[in-house]
Structure formats: structure tokens, C-alpha cells
Sequence to fold (742 residues):
Amino acid sequence: MKLIQRRHIPLLSAHKDHTASAAITPLAAPELVVIPLRQHIGEAGEPAVAIGDRVRIGDVVGESAARVTATVHASVSGRIRDVKDYPHPLGGLVPAVVIENDGRDEWVDLPVIGEPEHATPDELRSAVRRAGVVGMAGAGFPTAVKLDPPPDSDIDTVIINVMEGEPYLSADHRMALEHSDEVVDGLRWIMKMVDAPHAILAVESDKEDAAAALERAVATAGLGSRAEVRLLPRDYAAGAEKILVEVVLGREIPSGGFPYDVGVESQNVSTTAAVSRAIRLGSPLVERVVTVAGDGVERPGNYLIRIGTSFDHVLDEVGRTGDVDRVIMGGPMMGIAQADLAVPVIKTTTGILAMSPAESRQGSEVPCIHCAWCVEVCPIGLMPYLLVDLVRFLDPRDAAAYNILDCFECGLCDFVCPANIPLVDVIRGGKHTLRERTA
Amino acid sequence: MKVTSSPHVRRLLSKPRVMWEAFGALLPAAIFGIWYFGPIDTLPQVVAAIAGAVAAQAIVERFRHRPITVMDGAPWVTGLILGMSLPPALSPLIALAGGAVATGVIKEFVTTSTGRTLLNPAMAARVLIVSEFLVPMTTFPVDGVSGATPLASATGPGYFDMFFGTRGGSIGETTAVLLLLGGAYLMWRGIIRWHIPAAYLVGVVVTSLILGRDPLFDLLAGATIMTAFFIVTDPTTSPATVPGRFGFGFATAGIATFIRITTLFPTGEALGVVLGNIATPFIDRVVTNRVYGTGKRRERKPA
Fold:
């Protein structure tokens, strides 16, 4: 293990004490699951079932013929009760399939590839696509598409992201620690699909146990000469794909470009494990590990939860306590506050945080004092306060010249702002306005 | 339940906290000056400057139908900086007026296109009241006797007196050691960064050498240390990026020192700061950081 140094920003406290040592525990499946037909970037699926149909775990309930899409599957066995628009944790209403759980947990016959060692990259990608795997760290980009870079891109390195810089969250940490063999197996197939000779598993230094487990798994799998584990200092921003590529390889993804533009394929650790299950077992993505934490949670931990389980059911199972100010899907830096706890857990639900008033942001905005702390912390060198000025008071089009579209909304500027200005919200609005005008 | 935009957590270093810590960092030097020059000749001016700044801001906010924010500490810092920059035995009425002009006029109305204060309020007010009250603003009593400040006298005090502040001068600007300690505290707290003070001090030394003077004298005389750590570091009126800050600090020091040494204008440092402030919005638009994935990249060795 090699320690890499980057300019250190000692800012975020990790808040992981409650969950980092909490082993993955299955959560009881609810009586009803709600499977949104869009849980990913790209085309929503069309319903593949009708009200009254009986389904088993793994049955396709929604799919699309588009290239950028992801199939969704039943996560319980039972009967389709409804196909209708339903509140979605990313906002708005999304068509969803509602399944009544019969409690029998019957699976479909899974389509297993006989000898994946002899399968072609295209056959492997089909398995990943069939399993409906998407980027599980939050973006939700269909993995089979990401694993199919343009033919002229010369991928030399696969990076597996085990950074998980978001405070509170430890689902990826536990996956890497408890399922290291699965992760390394997934890595093997990823390297084969993108034809990469080399791989780096980038682990944040507060997860040394996971790094050690991954090292052992790499050695066991006989990948020692091609894959290495690197321990990186704690740095929230380095969990972002762009920054991680720079930290690990010293390469910058061009503005508006993709990792394959600089010869890199990057995948999140839980996604990598899902790739292994898709290829080895033919198993679709019907459940995931979710960190459930915050002051409002009685038994914080990492729970294996069926896709489609409502947030209400999750919080009932883990116990509610105290005064809850807001409930977040994801981490406290980039997560989304929920208005309605009927929303289901989806493939990109990394965490459910029930935060008390004391641990969450309060107070109202005061005028900017131009301290430029936002400029100092921005991991990509933007001038956040200037972008806010341009969007609010001047012309959002000028903000494009100051690279507003490169912002990936990590939240650091907003986090340090002494004037409590909602920088991310304003910048997000400015990006939206610009995209609408150019569209 | 609240439905708010991310992030949902924040660092607990708020604007009032920043302002009151700056106020506290200035206090030792202010208290020393009040003691050294005598409370009767100094305390009324300092209190009047703060009162003027706080009251004027409250009045302006009241009449512009905005929340009254004077308890966030900002006008207190402005008033204290102005009060410390005044000569002992000045009429408190002038100090009161200066404080009022600083926050009630300059901070509120002399702004950029996005409504941000353009000039350092305390320094702009000081320039104005020097122009208006030239004689009282340039009369510096020493040991109860009217005498010259180091800048205005041929046989000034030694380095020792200048470092510890036992010399003539403005109320709170003479004690280099306490001002340095206050500046060090703010840097340790992360409230100010080292770039502007360093560039400012280098600028003073370079200008002093070019003009064939003693750079150590010019560093310790006048308001140089005060300016470097507490005035040009005013976040609102100084640039945002590190290269911008270096350029701003260096150029402002050059202008200020040049005016101080080569002209008869008696408050060159303040005038230099105000001239530097005017460039800040322009610097911020032009001297930006290179954005990841754009432009020409410096080669970095992969780790």
C-alpha cells in the first residue's frame, strides 16, 4: 500500500463512528415494494408486467430498447398490485410497479454464463446489462454502457473507487471489507471488458481494514501483478471521479469529457461487486447495502435492503428516536432532502439519514463578505461566489465563461460559507438555466 | 420535515464569529495605545468611532428596511480600526463623524455592480476626514507634548521603541509586536491567509529600497503592520485568488509607501489602500484560478 499526498483540506468530520464497524445486516422485506421504472440516467423502462401478474425475484418488471437505460427487476415474489406514477426520491413522480410481497422469496431461474473466462467482452456486458447494474454511488449511470467505451479509447487503468468521502456513509466501506473477493472478481471482468492491463483500488485511509482485505483478495485472485491497492489520505473531494483520476494518475479529464478520454475506466466498489454477481450468478440488482444513520435513528448501521422498500419502512425497522429535522437520501454533502417518506429505496440509495436539528444546517443567509473561502476549497478551481453573483445579479451566460457547467456540486463551498449562502442551490439553478437556453 | 438544498451540514465558523474574532485580535494593540497615550486623550475617540460606525449602520439598515445586523460585529471592527488610526487628542466629534461616514456612506453606498462594498470603509473614511480636518488629524502629541511622529521627524525613535510601540503615532498603530500577535492569531484561526500580508510587507521593503531608504524603518513606522494584517486583509475589498492577492498586496504596498514617502499627503497608507481597493473587482474578474480540465495544465507527476 502506498500513501498518496494531495493538498489537505481538513474540514469535514466523518461522523462514521456509529456505522463503520456495523456489519451488513439484512433488513426484513416490506409487504409492498415500489419499483420505479427509472432509477438511472437515461431512458425510463416501459412496464413489462400488468396488474395481477405474479412475479418472482429477478423477473423483469421494466425495460427499454434504448442504449442508455437500465432494466429493473422484481425484488420480492408476489403479485403486481399497481402500475402508476409514484413519488421518487430524486423528486417528482415516476412510473413505478407496485408489488405485493407474498413472503416466499422465490427466485427466477438465473441466466448464468457457463464459463465467464471464455466469454467475450460483449457477452459479459450483456450479462451486466441484463442484471440492470448502474453506478451505485449516486450517479446511476448504466454500468454496461460505461463499460463500453468508444473503440478508439485506449484504457490503460481501471480505478475502483473505495473513497466514500461523504460523512456518515459506510456502505461502500463494509462492502469492500466483507465482500472483498466479490469486488476483486468484479474487477477482473471489468478489466477484461475494457481491455485494461492495470488496475488501482483507491481506498481512503480511514478504511485500512478494507484496504487490507482487498489486498488479500487481490493476492488470492492471482491479480497481484496487475492490480494494486492504494491508500489515500482522507479527502472528501477525492471521492469524486474527476478528482480521483487526478489524484491517482495525475491526469485531468477534459472539461465535458469522460474518464476514457484519458485512458481510465472508473467504477464504484459496490457497483464492482454487483458486476461480479451479474456475471458469476446472473443475479440482478434487486437489493443493496444502505447506511442508515443520524441522530433520529435508534439502531444506525449498514442494512441490506430490497430495492423498492419505502423509507418509512426502513426507519420503522431501525427505530426512530428524537426530533428529526430532515431525512436525506445519500450523504449530508450531496444528498437529497425528502418531502415524503413513502419514496422507495432505489439502486443509487447510498444512505438514509434522519438528521436532528442539532446536526444539520440551520439559520438564514446574510450578505456575502467575499472571504473567498469558497474559492479556496473548490476542488476544481472555480470562483463559487462569483458564479452566484453572476447568476443572481448579472447574466448567467457570463457564468458559462467562468466554467459553471464544470461544477459537480460537491458542496464544499456551501459548507464553509460563513454567510450561510446556498451556493450549490444557486449554481445548480444557473446550470439549469444555461442548459435550457442552449437546448 | 425540511426540504432544503444540499449540503445539509456546515462548518461552524459564521460571519459574526469571524468579525468578533477580528475585533478581539485588534484589542491588545488598541488597549496598549489607550494606556500609552492616556485614556483621557484616546478612549473617547475610539469609543466615538465605534459608536458612529455602529449607529450609522443601524440607521441605514432601518431606513432601507433591512434586518439590523450590527451585532454581527462588522461595524464594530470598522469603528475600531478607524479609532485606532486616529491621532491621540483628536476631537471625539470628528471620530464619531468618521465612523458614521465609514459605515453609513462608504460601506453602504460606494459599491460594485453586485452591491459589494468597494473601498475599505475605515480607510476611505480616514482619507475623507484627513482632507476635511487636516490640522487636527496630523497633530500627534508625544508624552503630552505635541511632537513629530517617526515619519515626520528626522531623528525618530529607535527600532526598539518602534517595535514595542513606545513612540508617537496613531492610537493603535504603534505597537508592532501586539499587532503581529493579533495577525498571527487570525492566521492560526484560518480567518485571514498569509498571502496578502506577506506580499504587502515585501512591497513595502522593495519600494523602500528603490527609494533608497531604510526598509526596517519603513516596516515599523506608520501603520504598516496594522495595514498589512488588519486592513488590506479585509476580505470584502481584497481579491479572492492567491495570485490576485499577491499582486494586490504588493501593488497596494508600493502605492501606499510611495505616497507616504514622496508626497506631503499625511495619510498615504490609507490612500494607497483605497486606490488598491478600486482594482479589486477587476482583479477578481481577470485573475482567476485555472479550472480542472480546462486550459493549459501544469504537468503533475502521478503519485
Remarks:
- The two ends of chain B are 45 Å apart (CA to CA).
- Confidence is low (pLDDT under 50) at residues 143-147 of chain B.
- The CA atoms of residues 211 and 262 of chain B lie 9 Å apart.
